[in-house]
Automatic annotation (TrEMBL):
Protein name: Phage shock protein B
Keyword Membrane appears in the UniProt entry: yes
Alphabetical list of NCBIfam families matching this protein: phageshock_pspB
Record field: transmembrane: 6-25
Domain of life the protein comes from: Bacteria
UniProt keyword annotations, A-Z: Membrane, Transmembrane, Transmembrane helix
Organism: Sphingomonas guangdongensis
Coiled-coil spans in chain: none
Claim: Transmembrane helix is one of the keywords in the record: yes
Region listing for Disordered, in residue ranges: 74-93
Length: 93
């Protein structure tokens, strides 16, 4: 029994550990990646969201100018505004 423990340790180190590493490297390489088409779609969606935010701000300014009692409805605010996302996007590119 005393000779079995070092054999198990050596097998684990030289066979088991490399097998485990190569197994997950293979899984990582097979993982789906973002395609050029997906990246173009994300860019289009980003620019669309940017334009929509500008339009909503314009409408809010017009309504506020026409109606001094206007206040925005208490809608939940997103965690990051489009302008913050714009800053992160510009840093990426």
């Amino acid at each position: 029994m005393g000779e079995l423990i070092p054999v198990i340790a050596i097998v684990s180190i030289f066979i088991g550990l490399p097998w485990l590493i190569f197994h997950y490297v293979t899984k990582w390489k097979q993982a789906p990646k973002i395609t050029d088409e997906d990246e173009k779609l994300l860019d289009e969606l980003y620019h669309f969201a940017r334009r929509m935010e500008e339009r909503v701000q314009t409408v809010e300014r017009i309504v506020a100018a026409d109606n001094p009692d206007f206040r925005q409805l208490s809608a939940p605010t997103p965690s990051a505004s489009v302008s913050e996302i714009d800053y992160q996007y510009s840093r990426r590119n």
